[in-house]
User: Fold LacI family DNA-binding transcriptional regulator from Bifidobacterium avesanii.
Amino acid sequence: MPPSGNRSTPVIKDVAQLAGVSVPTVSRYLNGTAKVSQEKREKIAQAIKLLDYKPSFVARALANKVMDSVTLLTSLSRYWATTEINSGAEHAARDRGFLFGVTSLDGISDDEIESTINRVLSANPAGVIVSESDEIAIQVLHQIPKDTPLVLIGGSRGDAPYQVMPSEREGGRVITEHLLGLGHRNVVHVHRPEGPNNNTRTLGWRDAMRDAGIQAVEAYQVGSDLEESVELGRKLAHDPNLTAIFAGNDETAISLIKGLRDEGVHVPEDVSVAGYNDQLFSRMWDPPLTSYSQNFVDLGAAAFEMLYAQIEAKRAGNPAPAPECRVIEGRLMVRDSTAAPRNAA
Amino acid sequence: MPPSGNRSTPVIKDVAQLAGVSVPTVSRYLNGTAKVSQEKREKIAQAIKLLDYKPSFVARALANKVMDSVTLLTSLSRYWATTEINSGAEHAARDRGFLFGVTSLDGISDDEIESTINRVLSANPAGVIVSESDEIAIQVLHQIPKDTPLVLIGGSRGDAPYQVMPSEREGGRVITEHLLGLGHRNVVHVHRPEGPNNNTRTLGWRDAMRDAGIQAVEAYQVGSDLEESVELGRKLAHDPNLTAIFAGNDETAISLIKGLRDEGVHVPEDVSVAGYNDQLFSRMWDPPLTSYSQNFVDLGAAAFEMLYAQIEAKRAGNPAPAPECRVIEGRLMVRDSTAAPRNAA
DNA sequence: CTGAAAGCGCTTACAG
DNA sequence: CTGAAAGCGCTTACAG
Assistant:
């Protein structure tokens, strides 16, 4: 018995008619914004079920000035961690009934960044998550109105009132200390370019080295072309003092190992090599890679939840939650690519 | 000289006032839906620039019954190919000024799938992309109104009027033929569960085997726990007739190699092993892995473009584009993990 | 507790 | 070419 318009998706008027109440009453029922008599509640519930009515996201968004959606801004859209973060955040959003949007900031000019962000904001998202990976992120932070719920993933402590970050620096320290604890007197670090923040693997490595009283620290930066790391491995193979390397990620680690082997250096017998990220392939490597495992899915989920708390508070007219910087712990995975140095015992 | 309301983001009324024209005229200017005099055009343009006005996505969506956004539905949100697909589609959408949403279907019950889809649709997306990975996708297809622009990624030819698919089957055939061409008399296949469609790597392998007149085909299915593949590798190591394996993906390939090695079997000297997907780590493997490279980023972008063509046609009141099934080609990457069998020449 | 009214920002017929 | 009017589907004061 389709009411009013006979076609397409039912709207609030349809359920109001079918239930024999006014439209605002249905709205109140839906949002719990005011008491509705038991009797009408039931009729409305029935009508909704009968019609399979779903409130329109966009009409609500227009009336409320805000949509039940969040958008994640990222500038490293194809990076492994980004995938995990997005997935974690998206699932959390979905489970709360929020639409989840992604907008990438890579591959566009600086001028376009502003208009891209404005476009995102013109969809009235309830909040935005900025996933830091480079300078762009910080620039972006300033372009988002202060009253828009926001959480920053990564960055330096204090870059934003609400942050979720991986234990990057801690991870760098832990890996380095593991190597040092094995008896290595020096740990060479090879890393990709890192974000402009104070929570990097490289800084953790420096922390550990400094605490161990080691002065001569050697770090090499490599790009995303793995051949570069292979080359570096070949070169490092001829350093007689080399006994341990902490690579900034697993791909770099296996590439270095490849280079070392090309020159007849054995891992871990001659040189220990640790990676970072504990990717799936790492445990299959020969030798299985010592690495640091970071749960980026949890990180993404935590970011959404922190955002959601702000959104809820704002809607309820409550004061904003206290600023927070949550660190998601990772953990060291010791495998066979690291061992005590030959001349240790 | 801020017009009307003095605060927050400007709306169309503000630019109309500032330009000294009516609101509909601004709208016409914006959408090019009717001629606007040169003089007014200029004034409007100026006002827009001055105010940094951006039309509201949601108001437009309400008036037009459709939002400048597309949503991608996926049930394999953390899979490698999914990342690439999403990234490709998102960039293409962004470049067209479309918002891009992702909704995952994994981890929810069958009942919830319908309501999740309804929720997505209640945001009036201009179109949706369904990324096939399992039976869920096909189920989803039927829940989307016929008049909603839609493109299916993957699936069997004919599952939907508009499809973009990887050359999976072709890839399976090419890899197998490569192995056969090297002189192998049999190619054992090890694969993960595959989608319920007729475009799978496994079918390509069967095609090639059949064409080569090989009857005794052996296929093994493994799960996502790589240890299972290692085990299988150990077991296969004792098969005296084994000379070549086509693994359904690179992770499986390296795990099999690990198992083979555990039993003293050398790759490629004793057994050739090929992977699939050509992941970054594959070329760094020891030995570097022969694999099939598929550009999933392009695939995602192509899916969006195909969707966009439908959206445009619909908006212009034109007939829908002709149904299309576009195949994105991949290519064979021959490396050292495959070689002629020992007793070949 | 519950209607009638007005409004969110934009677009589309309808009359000039 | 261009206004005034009505409407998209929902919500929020305003009066009962």
User: Anything to note?
Assistant: The first strand of chain B starts at residue 67 and ends at 74. The first helix of chain B runs from residue 12 to 19.
